[in-house]
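To make this tangible, this section ends with a sequence with its structure tokens:
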Amino acid sequence: MAVGNSPKSAAPIRILTAVPVCDGHDSAVTTINIELARHGIEVIYLGYHQPASAIVRAAIQEDVNVVGLSSYNGGHIVFFKEVVDQLRKSGNGDIPVFGGGGGTITQADERVMKRQGTDRIFFAGTPLDDIMALIKKDYAHVPKLTRKLRGDRALARAITLAEEAVFASKTSRLSPFAARPNAKRSFVVGVAGPGGAGKSTLIDELTSRFLRSNPTGRIALLANDPSHPDSGGAILGDRVSAIYAQDDRVFFRSLATRGSLTGLSAASPAAIEILKQSGEFDLILVESVGVGQESDPFQIFGKKPKLVDATLFVLAPYYGGLIQLQKITLLNGADFVALNKCDHPMAHTAKAEIQARLNQNAQDQSLYPTTAAKHFDPGVDALFTAIAKVAGLEVGPDLRAGRSASPRQKVGAVIPNRPPSTSAAQGPLRITAPTSKKQRLKKGARA
């Protein structure tokens, strides 16, 4: 039976879990993540092989109660200290850090780590129920808006308070940020599609192109994932695909639906408004949970105000047949439609069927064939260029010339290599057969 939340907190505890750099052992943290969610806790999973800087950035932007690290590579004393030190240096030392590592972390190590600032270590053999009870006892707290918070943490806390207000069915002011006369106008794109279509990976690749094309701009990502209807917990795993969120110009926030059946957290409208009123972001991408055939998460139909400026609907080639396409409501109103995973054998047939479905709408909709699992996919280039044109954003010279530059050169982050693309240039209504690609090498491939 699932166990609810601590009475200290009106809403679920939020925990960031990760595995340190040079450590590919993820079976233990996967077990812990599932158990945390079963006990009503929201788990933001970052993945394995994570540097301290990525963990700290995620902890700040997610406004988590605590960070939990699973370390089996033997470098725990140095690594945990680095995470704690970076949190303190950034003014976020109030976020505690705990961890575990089976038999690799000894009691003598724990004493050293505690002196360095680690909150506690859970040793091998500790019952899972005991771990859950201690986490709920020690790390549940009611968040408050304080003047001490700065930058992304202040922004993240405002979103947390909006979530808390919605969870408690209270009315809250949408944004603590006063509108600035010269603030940027954010363009908001809602991204929807069935589960497994590759929305998160496509968003990550669009992010890379934004960063290259807009060297001083900022982009915000809101990623919605479902809460468990029984426990209320959730595994918020979209950061696993977010390679380019390692850039400081990317603000990434995970949201659990917490009972909302619309495909978005009920706090999403407030979160969007907070990001817009901050005046920091040129582009905001809002990802829904995997949606069904009748879903309209961004209110693009009906009389209610739309939540976004444009909608991107993402499909994979294996959607089940023509009759299934006819049932998908969002294909009637999406501004952009992407057929992702075009390295799949069914892609050519899917392209023809989806384009025929769009032609029936008589709205001059274009279909963008993409293979987002490749870093240099020209189909993603074409899709970003189309979005940028509508949003009034810059398009980098490499994209305008039809060639995608290396993210290692343009982004400045450590990006894992992927097999080079051999496909010809792709644009709307055209599919070639790119080389097949194994699952992403970066993180989360086994999570």
In short: The chain is about 30% helix and 15% strand. Residues 174 and 270 are 5 Å apart (CA to CA).
